[in-house]
Amino acid sequence: MHSKTALRGVNAFLSALLFALGCSFAVNASAQHVYYRYVNKEGVKVLEHSIPPEYAQLGYEVLNASGQVVKVVPPAPTDEEVAKNAQEREAREIYARLKRRYSSAAEIESAKRRRLANIDTNIAILKGNISSVTNEIQKIMGKAADYERRNQKVPAPILQSLSDAKAELGIAQELLQSRQEEYQEVIEKYDSDKDAFVRGETLEAKEDARIQ
Where does the record locate the signal sequence feature (predicted)? Predict the structure, then answer.
């Protein structure tokens, strides 16, 4: 009698345990069950257990078993958007470097004017040297011509002085050309930096406005 009662108790306990485990399994399975909602090529919203790769690129929503949206996946960026994002990222990096040197676009303009003024001074000095050496060459050539008119051989020192003066003139002219090219390069560089600074400021302002 006691053994039958005990057996019925064990059976009841096992039944309750199995029922509880079954409920727990059902709850877990339900909790892990998700749906994907996306728009197909006909423009119709579709709700399925999986999503085709071609539609995943267009963005979708993840819903739980209760129909609640638990995640929103935005569309993959287009090639144009990828390129634009890369350009903006590069612009921000350049802006960050410029900010370590300048506080404003006006400061960049001031730095450009100072640099150009320095180059202008060098150009003026070189032009003065070129004028002076040119005059010296003309004088030396005049002396050489005097000897030639007298049918005399031009002395070696005069010829050497003429050669040295022409070499000096050539160097001065090369330096002048280099400084003139540098002048234009400085204009282009500082103008480019100023444009990059202004663009970076604009992107930063847009980002701040978006966050706020």
Answer: 1-29
Are both 130 and 173 inside the same structural domain? yes
Residue 192 has a pLDDT of: 96
pTM listed for this prediction: 0.62
**Residue 212 DSSP label:** -
Q: Based on the fold, state whether residues 159 and 183 are members of the same structural domain.
A: yes
Token pair for residue 116? 């150009």
Give the chain's end-to-end CA distance (angstroms, integer).
78
Whole-number pLDDT of residue 56: 86
| Domain match, 164 and 96 both | yes
Q: What does the alpha-carbon distance between residue 160 and residue 124 come to, in Å, rounded to a whole number?
A: 28
Mean pLDDT of 78-83: 88
User: Coil, strand, or helix at residue 87?
Assistant: helix
Residue 130 has pLDDT above 90, yes or no: yes
Domain total in the chain: 3
Domain around 43: 33-76
Closest CA to 58 of 87, 78, 44, 80: 78
